[in-house]
Amino acid sequence: MAIAARPMLPAKAHAQEHEDPREHLMHDPRPRGEMNAMVLESMHTAGWRFYAAAGVLTLLVLTCFFYAWGYMIANGLGVAGVNRPVFWGIFLVNTVFWIGISHAGTFISAILRVMKVEGRRPFTRAAELMTTFGLVQAGASIFMHMGRVWLGYLLFPFPNERGLWPNFHSPLMWDFLAINTYLLCSTMYLFLPLIPDIAMVRDHATGWRKIPYRILSLGFRGTEGEWKNLQTAMNIFAFAIIPVMFSVHTIVSWDFAMAMRPGWSSSVFGPYFVIGALHSGMAAVAIVLFMIRSTMKHMKYFIRAEHFNLMGKLMLIVSMAWAYFYFNDYLVMWYGGDKWEKILQEFTEKGPLGYLWFAMLIFNIAVPWLILWNRKWRSTPWLLASVGLIINIGMWLERYIIIPVGLTINRMPFTWRLYVPAIEVFLTIGTISLFLLLYMLASRLIPIIPVWEVQEGQAAHMLRKVGKAEVSTVSEIE
Amino acid sequence: MSTELELPMFTNTSEEDLGGRWGMVIDQDICTGCQACVAACAMENNIPYVGEKDAAYGRSLHWIRIERFWQDAFPEVKMTPYQPMLCQQCHKAPCEPVCPVFASVHSASEDINLQVYNRCVGTRYCSNNCPYQARTFNWRDYTDTRRQPELTTLQNQLNPDVTVRRRGVMEKCTFCIQRIRHSEDAAKADNRPVEDGETLPACAQACPADAIVFGRIDDPESRVSQAARSARGYHQLEELGTLPRVTYLKGETDGHRG
Amino acid sequence: MSEPISRRDFLKLASAGAATTAVLTGCGPASRYVTREPYTKMPEYTYNGQSTFYATTCRECSAGCGLVVRTMQGRAIKVEGNKNNPVNLGKTCARGQVTLQGLYNPDRIQNPGKHTRGANSWSSGQGSGFQEITWIDAINEVSNALSTNEPDEIAFLLGMAPDHLFDLVSELTTAIGAPAPIRFGALGMFEARKTLMQAASRMFGTRGLPSFDIGEAGVVFSFGANFLETWFSPVAQTREFAKFRQRNPAGRGHLVQFEARMSQTGSKADEWIAIRPGSEAQVVLAIGRLVAESRGLPLPPAFANADVEAAAAAADVPSGTLVHLAGVFAQAARALAIPGGAALAQSTGLEAAEAVLALNALVGNLGKAGGVFMAPLAPIADAYHAPASGREMMEFIGKLNSGKIKALFIHGTNPVFELPRALGFMEALAQVPQVISFSSFPDETALQADYVFPDHHGLESWGYQQVATGANAAVLSGSQPVVAPFYNTQSTADVLLAAAHLPRGRAGGQLSQALSYSDELAYIQSKLGSLLADGSGFFSAPEIDTFTAYFQQHGGWWTMDDRRVAPPTADVLNRTFEAAPAALDGDGEFHFVPFVSPILAEAGANKPWLQEVPDPTTTVMWNTWIEINPETAERLGIQDQDVVRVVSPMGSAEATVYKYPAIRPDTIAMPFGQGHTVYGQFAEKRGANPTDLLGTRLNAAGDLTFGSMKIRIEKTGRTRELARLEGALGVYGFDAK
């Protein structure tokens, strides 16, 4: 029996895995000043394409967001497509969608930090920005769906002569509190790691621009004591914001799970929505990374194939988890045998909107599973971003199926009616445009890359020879 | 089968006299689907009309609707008995816990569900949670004479006892609480209880078949209590445990069918 | 809501409401005066925040239901039924409820004026076809028309309700020797009233309208009578139906409805028998024969020619079904058969009606509880005057066409819209030099008038209405204004009386003498005088002013006892009938069933809330629809929302399809009530009018055979969504739109 000799040493065996370790960001350090200069240059350089894009987005925001919303406030929700029985439509879909996207930021900057995944270093802020801006869009969408948004302050507990509190039994109040908490915390958590980089920008800024940076940097000098305080604060926040993240989307899911609707009052909605949020969030991060890398100067240094590979692996795992939860929800409904839920399932799959359900499964399960198992494909930025886009569309469809399609079927068949979106389409375009525009503005004002974190990581990573292999000094979760 | 859960009751805590508990019986065997109740309700409660386009899209504001379905096909086709559907004034109303601003509350004295128009911000969670789909929403300003000048003369007909709602506000059947309050006031002034049949909502008053019976269900001898004890009586979606105040009497057959 | 009448309330209710009309007191001689009071001392009935209720009569159809209208500060707020009026006993139908939107309709004609025919403009200005004139000029015009034309050149066309205006105009025409006024309404046409009357007359030898005691019957066979919708007195009949069903000493009543298209009434039936249009007479006779056999009676001559197999084949119903039904009818303790408009609207219609009356005679229910009676003659009526049949209208149209009529006065009817176009009424109007309309609304007939002198709305009017059927008592329902007139309108009766009193030519003197009443109120009071001595009413009074005050307060006068008359039973079963199939018109594939929309009826289309009340069987709002059997639709490749055109030799109409499960596959149905070309912004250019397809065939009694047309369908390739309250997904399944 001839057995091919297998080398014991890991060098060749790991060849596929690592190729040249110096391709990794962590093993490819540059002088600090040079890295800072790269980041500053990417902040301050803008080609004509940037201005064109910003111009188009501004136009879209003005028309599809502000004007359209103003028109809707002035004329009532009748200009949208909601009716009886579909009282909630795309506005709620968008709300859940944007909150979902915002979860990715927290996952990457908090969970990956806590789990010490080094690959997260260059894009924690990009993800955290997604959280903040995503929550802005979610908040806008929630306010858009209100019939009398100018009375929205009634949801806020404030002293009044009638002695009225808002109703804390209502899941919408829980939403209100949870999202506000999340927005506050994640803004803080965005800000803390931003301080050293703002300080770096301050040090290089001139003229009137120096003033806001000086204020925001809170006098950070980079002393050991300051770093220690900062690390402590960030660690506390990292741990603290993880339960907030899980609870926020669970609470959002309870908007539906606490309702008496067939298909909605399912106890699995809590974790199901959290996983769904991660699913769409990760996919959105992949898109964002691709866009940053392709459009901003020097980003090809910071964001490399390895990061896409990392995101791709996470996306694959999460999509499997999502598929499990979806199957769980589906199966329970199916064998539970409730008459109305069975009708709902039949309507979802075989009714006039059945193609949406089918598309959702393809986009959320089939596409990631077919593509993301392959390392080379995972590491290809444009491919991963495309898969990310498809997953996002799939997750948007998933919420569309839960909300408008789910609301079509209730226990009073005489009222069943389809939903036809109207001005919601424009307002969706408006929120997406606003998100992108805010992102683009942020990229001009603050460094997208948390340079100090990258430098911190690079300082810790060295290559040591162990036998014939070169091994990194920092162990990574692959 | 409903479990006795100790849910908070969302009752107001003012010291009104505990007046009667009001309820309704609808006899589906004699309801002819004539829509007199629908028209009467609209005229009494200042319900605006929404026009063909919005009505086609399910945005009409009918507080009461007459449902019917079909069974089998020609020539054995039958229409199911007409089913007037309105707010059931559930004792355990699902619309109450979910309103974030307490615009949907329970009345301690009349034991019905109240919609507080000026508090409503229009999140529409209540209508999503209503298993009877009894609630409607003002999708536009349907009463603005600036947008619709033809309303100027029509608005002379508006009932001053009922709020005219603007866009963004939920509305639903109130058991004509303005009439209940009016007769309670009159009875109080005369120092006597409200008599059975003294106050009727517009629908019960108009119904030519007298299919809608209304009165005090806490009085076991009232007409509505007696009617509710019929063997044909049932509640809609009873399994949800909403404890509605409306009892339906099943449409019957008499066995002559060949 | 009517409260116990206290003395204080009596004074409140016995009021006039209008600023310049008389204040009648309960005691003393006739007092008409205007009082001047300081503004701070308001009359009792206008306290802020308090409602005042006025009893009056609904004018939306001619049933004569009593209303009590709640007003507040001079505005009519809500219509409620008059609990004491025996017709409706406090209940109202949807049309009565929404009558307030007629009173306050934005498209009411607000002033009298000279009108250019065909111009859809109703106020002066902007090069319009309407020149507002004063009421003095208007009255002068009327007076001229009455005086300068020969009496036989003057004609009056009135609405269906036998009201005080009809009585006044009858007196007027008698006084000058003009032809008697004609009353016409679409409901009368669709009920085939003349046929029913003539059947009763020929079978029972009595003149009048038969009435059917549904409430006490055990089994009711309705041959196309949609008695829960618009047939005769629907509110009363619905009450009777409720009694028939659930408060019936004979047990729950069993209703069988014979019609090609399941109407709302048919939907409440325990059995719906979808007989082919045209076979009604044969079916009734076949059942009669089978009932006689089932009961072991000798076969009467009436049913001798009945052929059960032929009838079953003509009706497209198994003969076993007829046998079963006859058994049900025969074994019932109290069986009642009702002839409805659709059955009578065939060439065999008169025979069908007589056969139904014979069937009733066969089971011996004439004059018994749960059976057939003659409706009470209304108080102060000399006889029952039926509205015009199709033949009478065609004769009238012929007269107009001949140019004989020089002045035509029209009030309370809209024949240009309601009559089938094939009869040519609009073209005939062109031959009349002067058409004066008293319409309150800009309808199609007013569009063809030279002058429009708008009458008050019904709720602004004095008057009375004789009730033809619907109550066991004899009922004279009273009207009084519930609000002051909203616009510059005048009561037509007042206009005619004022015109009569103008000294003018030949007719002037005669008229003035004959119609010596100072105004409408005086006329009404004079007519009520005959009731003073009648002690059988539910109130009495020592003299006419008190009587009139009570009449207004209570909303009318009616007897306390049952005034129905048992029809004579001799000879009823000795008539013979042919039992032939009906003659049909048109060459299309489908039978055409036009039916009156139970919500809009004749004149409801201009009220936006009525448009938004769903049709009971289809839940469609705001439009016309065409009902097709779903299998037929599939065979023809027609979907819901498709717009199709229905075509007869007389005309065509387009509307959206509604796949209706309960209609014969060879039948198409279409509601009547929409399809106005004018009539206000809520009615115009909406839907289609099925009478455009109808022909001119008459049955033996002279009613139009609106059930005899056969039509074809053409696809237009267009779609138009119907506003349906029902969710099609829930009612018809996920494939439905």
List keywords for this structure.
heterotrimer; B: about 260 residues; alpha+beta; Alpha-Beta Plaits; four-stranded mixed β-sheet; two-stranded antiparallel ribbon; 7 helices; 12 strands; globular; C: about 725 residues; alpha/beta; N-terminal domain of TfIIb; Rossmann fold; Dimethylsulfoxide Reductase, domain 2; 4 domains; seven-stranded mixed β-sheet; six-stranded mixed barrel; 25 helices; disordered N terminus
Break the fold down into its secondary structure elements and pairings.
The complex is a heterotrimer of chains A (478), B (258) and C (737).
Chain A: H1 10-13, H2 15-18, H3 32-44, H4 48-75, H5 90-114, H6 124-144, H7 171-204, H8 210-216, H9 224-257, H10 269-295, H11 299-302, H12 305-336, H13 339-350, H14 354-371, H15 375-378, H16 381-408, H17 423-445, H18 451-460, E1 463-466, E2 469-472
Antiparallel strand pairs in A: 1-2
Helix pairs in contact in A: 4-17, 5-6, 5-9, 5-10, 5-16, 6-7, 6-17, 7-8, 7-9, 9-10, 10-12, 10-16, 12-14, 13-14, 14-16
Chain B: E1 22-27, H1 36-44, H2 51-56, E2 65-67, E3 70-71, E4 78-79, E5 83-85, E6 104-106, E7 113-115, H3 125-129, E8 136-137, H4 151-154, E9 170-171, H5 177-189, H6 202-206, E10 212-216, H7 223-228, E11 233-234, E12 246-249
Parallel strand pairs in B: 1-12
Antiparallel strand pairs in B: 1-10, 2-5, 3-4, 6-7, 8-9, 11-12
Chain C: H1 7-13, E1 52-57, E2 66-72, E3 75-81, H2 94-97, H3 100-103, E4 113-115, E5 130-132, H4 135-148, E6 154-158, H5 164-176, E7 182-183, H6 186-191, H7 193-204, E8 210-212, E9 219-223, H8 234-246, E10 254-258, H9 264-267, E11 271-273, H10 280-294, H11 308-315, H12 319-331, E12 335-339, H13 341-344, H14 349-362, E13 372-374, H15 390-401, E14 407-410, H16 415-418, H17 425-429, E15 434-437, H18 444-447, E16 451-452, E17 463-466, E18 475-479, H19 492-501, H20 505-514, H21 520-528, H22 544-554, E19 556-558, E20 590-596, H23 608-612, E21 620-621, E22 625-628, H24 630-636, E23 642-648, E24 651-659, E25 667-672, E26 710-719, E27 723-724, H25 728-732
Parallel strand pairs in C: 6-7, 6-14, 9-10, 9-12, 10-11, 14-15, 15-16, 20-25, 22-24
Antiparallel strand pairs in C: 1-2, 2-3, 4-5, 4-16, 8-13, 17-18, 18-19, 20-26, 21-27, 22-25, 23-24, 23-26
Helix pairs in contact in C: 4-19, 4-20, 5-20, 7-14, 10-11, 10-12, 10-14, 19-20
